[in-house]
Amino acid sequence: MIVDKVKIIIKAGGGGDGAVSFHREKYVAAGGPDGGDGGKGGNVIFVADANMRTLMDFRFKTKYAALRGENGSRNNMHGKNGADMEIRVPAGTVVIDADTGKVAADIRAGDKKTVLKGGKGGLGNARFANAVRQAPRFSTPGRKTGAHEVWLELKSIADVGLAGFPNVGKSTLLSRMTSARPKIDNYHFTTLAPNLGVARVEDVDFVMADIPGLIEGAHEGAGLGHDFLRHIERTRMIVHVLDISGSEGRDPVEDYKKIRGELSEYSRTLAGLPEIIAANKTDITGAEDWITLFEEAYPERKLYPVSAVTGEGVDDLKYAIAGLLKTLPSPEAFEEEGVIEEWEMDGGTLTMDIRRDEDGILNVTGSLIDDVFARIDPEDTESMRHFHKLMEDLGVIKELKKNGAKDGDTVRLGSEEFDFIE
Ligand code: GDP
Ligand code: MG
Fold first, then answer.
1. Of 94, 219, 304, 330, which has the highest C-beta tally within 10 A?
2. How far is the CA of 282 from the centre of ligand 1 (A)?
3. Which ligand 1 atom lies nearest to the CA of residue 210?
4. Domains in the chain with CATH codes
5. Cα(first)–Cα(last) distance of the chain, in Å?
6. Atom of ligand 1 nearest to the CA of 165
7. Gap between the Cα atoms of 138 and 123, Å rounded
8. Residues with CB under 6 A from ligand 1
9. What is the pLDDT of residues 296-311, one digit of tens each?
10. In whole angstroms, what is the distance from residue 252 CA to residue 271 CA?
11. Threshold 0.85, pTM exceeds
């Protein structure tokens, strides 16, 4: 089940371009090359925000872009790196590449993960100077980046799920134990909205969810069962709430067995979650006797006697929960995360089109060519040599061959024409 789902567009910053420049000083005739490198583009980073519980904000703002690196400039000035774009999401958010459906990142509490890397900066002409090539009149462009559509899916919202029959006191206990009420208006639960609260023990916050109506037959899809059960599967532990007073004709020993059965019927994951048992309503007479009966039935289980109404035992319960949470490993990742590499832009978003016209000339067009051409001097032999190497590196030569280019063919690139030599 997806609790909340939105689609957004993210884009890493492109790299800044390398500069072509020559040192100039009064009375110095010809200085050396001093064009600096371009800055790196900013990354797109997802950060878990402990104060966020929903993806609602993303309904109003859907485009997130990191900044482009600045271009290099004269005097070997390196362009400034583009600022990262940090996108804050609630813990439990999974970032999915909309094109491939692959998981790019599974953001858990405390996580900060780079999903898109900024483009590398281009090199300034100073980099290309050597003993034989003293005045390179070319630089390289920064790497371009493309926009990506990603789904954000919020799959888990609570650390602790409260389970138990209706009227045992789950909601009352939740409001006793927690202060902050995360915003849950418009919450996209198909059945019932869970009651959420943030509990604080010393400096540790955890989110508790009241699981309303975990009732008999829930695993068969009756009542509110399924969606919510699937959702709480990702909580880290369960607080099993019993009405230990046996009020309203309840039998807490039997109730415990039934809810346990309900959980394991539904899923092994859920049944396998660590559990703390809260024996609620201890302020009502009869509680003592039921505690004894329960301990006889389940001698290996520890009970935490509480009264959600008087507040007795609530602090002990809170500390026990926080203590247990501390020992639990962070929940297992949803799926392999693995799109990041693929998304590393490597000139990949630059476009190139090759077409032979009626005169037999191979026309190469597209942003890749424009980009490279903007930074070379066609009158300069060294530039052109560099240009040819770039054409090789960027795969243009290979593409030309694929398009049937043969020795002696004319190739038109931008404003220039060349003979194709294999
Ligand atoms: P839930 O259905 O499990 O969420 O139960 P509620 O929190 O709505 O509580 C059901 C009823 O039990 C309400 O009338 C509460 O006031 C009452 N209740 C809850 N906890 C206690 C308790 O510790 N002592 C007493 N005496 N009543 C309680
Ligand atoms: Mg309730």
1. 94
2. 11
3. 4
4. 1-154 (2.70.210.12), 160-327 (3.40.50.300), 348-419 (3.30.300.350)
5. 57
6. 3
7. 9
8. 164, 166-172, 280-281, 283-284, 307-309
9. 999 999 999 999 999 9
10. 18
11. no
